[in-house]
Amino acid sequence: MTTIAVLVGSLRKDSYNLRLAKSVERLAPEGAEFVYANLNLPLFNQDLEADFPPEATALKQLVEGADGVLFVTPEYNRSFSGVLKNAIDWGSRPWGQSSFAGKPAALIGASGGALGATQAQAALRNVLVFLDTKLMGQPEVYFNALTGFDENGELASSAEGFIKAFAEAFVKHVESSSAAK
Ligand SMILES: Cc1cc2nc3c(=O)[nH]c(=O)nc-3n(C[C@H](O)[C@H](O)[C@H](O)COP(=O)(O)O)c2cc1C
């Protein structure tokens, strides 16, 4: 079993990005288990590092126990969401004990427009490289939620192919990175 920790950077109940993550999960090869992190965390405060909040510890444990991490981000003001940055900041601490270092990872994102969280993903990619994740380069998916989901909120048939290709490439990336350890 290959375990994937999923970090969805939106707390919105009907989040496009959560729907996108669930679509990736549905189209992933058998044997991959997706576990969704709780990102409803206290605001990062370095004063709290000596006594980590339990929710932040749970996030670190989830990531450390997973074979790979999938980051799913909305675009807020041309960057990735504060919710996701906050979670990444917790997971990266204390100094020298980042949960992300060496983890096979990929990113994907949706927004309600044709640009499909392009700028958010570019900014997030920079952070994930700095954190020394083993980041999948291709394929990239910039997901337009207005055309990518149908009127029932399901993945549009036109999007099935490229989301399946992304899911397959990601799980392969995780499994080959883990085997190479
Ligand atoms: C504060 C804020 C800023 C936003 N900025 C952008 C933006 O820069 N680019 C964009 O494509 N969409 C932007 N949006 C629209 C989001 O893409 C849209 O709200 C989307 O549904 C968020 O993802 P979610 O459905 O997973 O919550 C913004 C939305 C909010 C609330």
From TrEMBL:
The UniProt entry, under InterPro entries, shows:
Flavoprotein-like_sf, FMN_Rdtase-like_dom, NAD(P)H-dep_reductase
Location of the NADPH-dependent FMN reductase-like domain: 3-144
A Pfam family it matches? FMN_red
Offer an example of a GO molecular function term for this protein.
oxidoreductase activity
* Name of the protein this chain belongs to: NAD(P)H-dependent oxidoreductase
Q: Which GO terms describe its cellular component?
A: cytosol
Q: What domain of life?
A: Bacteria
Native source organism of the sequence: Bifidobacterium tibiigranuli
